[in-house]
Amino acid sequence: MCRWMRSASMLWAAGLLLATALVGPLFQQHMFSSLAHRLPKSPPSVYPHRHIHGRGMADGVRIHLPEGLTRDQLQSFRPFKEWMATLNRSLARQTTASHPFHADPYVLRSITVQSFDRFGGNRLGFVKLAASVSNAAGESLPGAALLRGPSVAVLFMLIPDDSDDADDERYAVMTVQPRIPAGSMAFAELPAGMVDDAGSFKGAAAKEMEEELGITITDDHQMTCLSELAVAGDNDEGLATAMFPSAGGCDEHVTLYSHERRVPRDQLRDWTGRLTGLRSEGEKITLKLVPMRDLWREGARDAKALGALALWEALRREGRL
């Protein structure tokens, strides 16, 4: 009986070894084949960022780039340059003894660019990255960011020229257009647009009014920068004088302007339902007139409308408009 059990055990062990020899390579081949679809085709480019320096920067901060994006392209991307400059100043402030992180300051250690989008051919539009920021204790700060750059929005108001009381009859112009990121085909918002590399904020605002509203601004004094009038206080970090609608995940900041003009009453009807926008850029915009007293309700989903309305009303209460 014992001899039979020993023989059975030996046969079982031999069978196991044979099965391992036959199946093992097939299993390994399957595993590596499966992993091959998950691994990148080529390793990302890694560069030391020679232009990052300062108190809050680790020596040899490295930038990891995906395939198709070069270091020169990233460093010439205006949103990246401005984001880096602002972050550098903010980290450097930790040297001040009164700073809450002075005892164990945070340091930028690396940047990984995860993806990017191009607009109009080769122009860099969006950059998604993850910045590694931590202190000596190993505590880290959330560093995921979508870089897209600054934008402008305009609170454009129309007043009938025969109205004796402008406050009684004042209309805000809103645009209604598809906004796929919001899942909407008819999103109501203030006229707005991005600021390109060469443009100024006021110039971008005037350009948007011409493209979306058909209004030409020839005098800089016709445009009032609500953001500049409202923002005050400590700005040692060098933050933009603008509204940050999503500071937890995006660098975009919106400079808010206002503009008003009197028009013949019969022209007010012409504004409602007017089709505008640059068709060559996929813009399909319908204009909508909203009484100022209803703007908070009509624009409740639009941060630009709520921000501009709040600043406009507060500045008027203080007699600064």
TrEMBL record:
Protein name: NUDIX family hydrolase
Domain named Nudix hydrolase: residues: 170-295
A family per Pfam: NUDIX
InterPro entries (alphabetical): NUDIX_hydrolase-like_dom_sf, NUDIX_hydrolase_dom
Entry annotated with the keyword Hydrolase: yes
Keywords: Hydrolase, Signal
SUPFAM superfamilies in the cross-refs: Nudix
Cofactor: Mg(2+)
Gene Ontology BP term (one): nucleoside phosphate metabolic process
An example molecular function term from Gene Ontology annotations: ADP-glucose pyrophosphohydrolase activity
Chain coiled-coil ranges: none
Signal sequence, renumbered to the chain: 1-19
Record organism: Ophiocordyceps camponoti-floridani
